[in-house]
Structure formats: structure tokens, C-alpha cells
Records
---
Amino acid sequence: MALSSDLLSVLACPKCKGEVALTEQADGLFCKACSLVYPVEDDIPVMLIEEASEYKPE
């Protein structure tokens, strides 16, 4: 089960309150403003700043 679009529409970055979007691999939620990726574990977004990782483009 993937994250629903309804859930994605109400989620916000806990650090800056900006929009988040699903990563291409669908393994995290990306905040463009903060360049942070919040993990998604077992289809549950972990929206804790201390659990986020810095976005590193490949």
C-alpha cells in the first residue's frame, strides 16, 4: 500500500511547514525548502526532524 494523495496533501515539513513530496523511489518525503528527506517505513511517514536526512543528489 502506497501513501495516498489525500495524506500527502495534508502533510507538511515539521521544520519549515513547507510542502513535502514523495521521493522517486517512494522511500521518503522530500522538503525542497529544507533539503531534508523524511523516511517512510512500512508505508508510515516518520515526520520527525531528528529522523530526517539531508538530501544528497546523486
---
Amino acid sequence: MTKKKQNEMTFFEHLGELRKRILYSVFFILVFFLVSWAFVEKIYQFLAHPLLQFMPPGEKLAFTSLTEPFMMYMKLALISGLFLACPFVFYQLWLFIAPALYNKEKRLVMPFVFFTTFFFLLGGAFGYYYVFPWACRFFLDIGKDFKAIITIDQYFSLAFRVLLGIAVVFELPVLAFLLAKLRILTARFLIKNFKYAIVLIFIIAAVITPTPDAVTQSLFAVPMILLYLLSILIAKIVGPKETE
């Protein structure tokens, strides 16, 4: 499909194409959901480690309803399936936006899929190994004078919000690359609005991070600022040449 043909597509044809890509993405997520279900107990041990490492040996998470463990395992398999399927999901995203690109830009499909997957997984790893353990230790230290009864629903709802939120935010450089290629975003615009971006970054950090302290929020905000600076460099390299 050429760029001209894409421009001639009607609104409903765009919706049909979007629906097709969403259905393919859901299919891949469901496939990896089934794969993850076979290892769901090991996935549980892996994702519970950031909290359990700070609790007394043998301590377990609690549940308050009969169906809660089953629903928790379902969510674990789903989140695992999403992370495993992310290369296929990002490829579907590329297929949706590629018709709006020139032929020479369409050759970037492999770098696009690789770097979206890389930054998504990098964000999830950053949240798992750094932000979330820090948050767990912070909350346990605050409540050290009390008996901790932490339910699996409370813990994993928080874990999913942190891990997914950070993984999505780490896509900022790829988004900058794409918008610069489409001539929508420029490095000059990013530099001009840097001070507003700093404010927005700390607002996002306050929303995603589970603790109210400035140290934990900064732990999340500083990498975001570095990603923003990287986005400026990317937009400068791949974007159109700017004139004074």
C-alpha cells in the first residue's frame, strides 16, 4: 500500500484496519497467556520476590476470598503473556502506521520492532529490579510496628501498575523517533518545552510510583529525564533539518 492509497482510505476503512491489528494482537497475547499458564506458579514466585525478600522467612501473602488465588493466577498469566507477546504487538502497531510512511521509511520495520520491544522490557526490568523493591521496603519500614497482612490482590494490583506504567513510559525514545520521522516532532520543540516536560515527568512519577516520598519519585523521574534527553538527540538525528 502506498502513502497515497493510505490517504485515500475512508474513516471506516481506518477503523477496520485498526480492528484487524487489535484482533491479531489479542490473539498473540492469548497464545502467550496459555504458555504462561503452564508456568504460573513460578511466575508468581518471581513477581512476589520484591516483597517477600524483605519479609520474615516462610511468610506468605494472604487472600480474603475463595476465588482470589485463581483470579490472581489469571492476571499473572495475562501480564506475562503481554510482555512475551510485545514484539508481535509492536509489529501489528507498525503494520497499522506503516502505510502513512514513505517506502524508504518502511524499511525501518525491524529496528522499530526491536527498539520498542527493548525499551518496553527495559522499563519492566527497571521497575522490577529497582523501583518496586524500593517501594516494598519503604512501606514495610513504615509499618514495622504492626503485623503485616498483605493480600495477593493488593500486592499484584500495585505491581502491575508500576511495571506496566514504567514499561510504557520507557517507550518515549521510540515515540520521539516515530514522530520525528513523520515530521510531527522536532528537537527544537523538545528543547523549548524542556521545563514543562520536567514538571510533567514528576507528575507522571507521582501517579505511577506507589510511594509519596521524593526519593522514590526521583528514582523514577531521573531515568525519564534521561529518556527525554535521548529523545531530543533522536529527533535531532532523524528529524528534518531545521533552519534558524
